Amino acid sequence: MKKLLSIAFLFFLFACSDTQTPDLPAPAKVIMVPRSDDMAEVERGIDAVPESDGIQIQWYDLHDRNVKSYKIYRKNENETFYSLVKTIDLETAFPGSDTTYIDAAADLKLNSYNYYCVIAVNKDDMEGQPSDTLRYKLLSKPLTSNPNGEISGMPKFYWSFPVVPDSFILRIEEDFTGRLHFIRKFRSNYDNEYQELDLSQIENPPQFNSTLWYKWRIDIIGPEPQSSGAESDWLSFKKVN
Predict the structure, then answer these.
(1) What are phi and psi of 3, to 5 degrees?
(2) Separation of alpha carbons 56 and 44, rounded Å
(3) Which pLDDT tens digits describe the chain residue by residue (241 residues)?
(4) What is the reported pTM?
(5) How many whole angstroms separate alpha carbon 27 and alpha carbon 64?
(6) Which residues contact 239 (CB under 8 A, 6 or more apart)?
(7) How far apart are CA 183 and CA 79, in angstroms?
C-alpha cells in the first residue's frame, strides 16, 4: 500500500509541474537597423533595392531562443490601419533572411510614403512591443541601357527616368565579388527622359581591368534623402581594350 501511495504522489507532483509551467515573458521590443548613407560601401537599413520595385527593412536579432517569429506590418500614407504583410518563421528562415525583409508585394504603392514596424512573437504566441516606425517613399526606377556587355574605351553610361531628380549616384562593383569599385554623386542635367555620363570627362575617373566584369546601377536621391529614392537594375560590362 505504501508503495502505491508513493507512486500516486509522484504522479501528482509530475502532473502539477506539467500544468503549472509559468508563461514565457513577452519578447523585447525589436530594434531597427539605422539606414546607412547613400554613399556607404555596404547599404543597411531601410532602402530601395535594385532587384525589384521593393523596399528593404532590417532589424537586429533579439538573441532570444523563445522568439519563434517576426511579424512585419505596413501602412501607406493614404491608409488608416496597418496590415500584416509578412510573418518570418525562424525555424524555416534561411540565415540572413530572419532579420531582413524586402517588401515587393503587388500592393506596394510607389511615389508615396509607406510606414513599417516589426513585432517579435514568442512560442506562446505572445507579441512584444512594436518597433519604432520607419517610413520610405519608393520612387519609379531609372531605366539603364548602356554599357551592357563587352565595350571598348572608357564607358559612357546612359539611362532615363520619369521623375527628374536633383542628383544621382553611379555605383560600380566587381560583378563576381560584389566589391565596390567606384561610387560618386552627380548633379542631374534635368532632362526628363534621358541622361548620360561619360567617365572620360570627369576628374579622377576609375580604371578598369580588362580581365574583370563589372556591374553598375544608378541610385536616385529623393526629395528627402534619408527616406526616399530608387535604384535601377544592375547591368554588366567588360572593357576589352
Answers:
(1) -65, -40
(2) 9
(3) 444 434 443 333 344 444 445 489 999 999 999 999 989 999 999 999 999 999 999 999 999 999 999 999 999 999 999 999 999 999 988 877 789 999 999 999 999 999 999 999 999 999 999 999 999 999 999 999 999 999 998 999 999 887 777 789 999 999 999 999 999 999 887 666 788 899 999 999 999 999 999 999 999 988 888 899 999 999 999 999 8
(4) 0.86
(5) 8
(6) 150, 151, 152, 153, 155, 208, 209, 210, 214
(7) 37
Architecture of domain 143-239: Sandwich (2.60)
Cα(51)–Cα(215) distance, integer angstroms: 13
Which residues make beta-bridge pairs with 220? 168, 230
H/E segment holding residue 19:
helix 2-19
47-138: CATH topology = Immunoglobulin-like (2.60.40)
Residue 236 forms beta bridges with which residues? 215
- State the Cα–Cα distance between residues 147 and 153, nearest whole angstrom: 11
Q: Cell triple for residue 70?
A: 517576426
Helix (H, G, I), strand (E, B) or coil at 6: helix
Residues in the chain: 241
Compute the distance between CA of residue 146 and CA of residue 123 in angstroms, rounded to an integer. Answer: 51
* Cell (9 digits) for 40: 556607404
Residues of the chain with CATH 2.60.40.10: 47-138, 143-239
The predicted pLDDT at position 125 comes to 94
Return the closest-CA partner of residue 232 out of 157, 150, 128, 120: 157
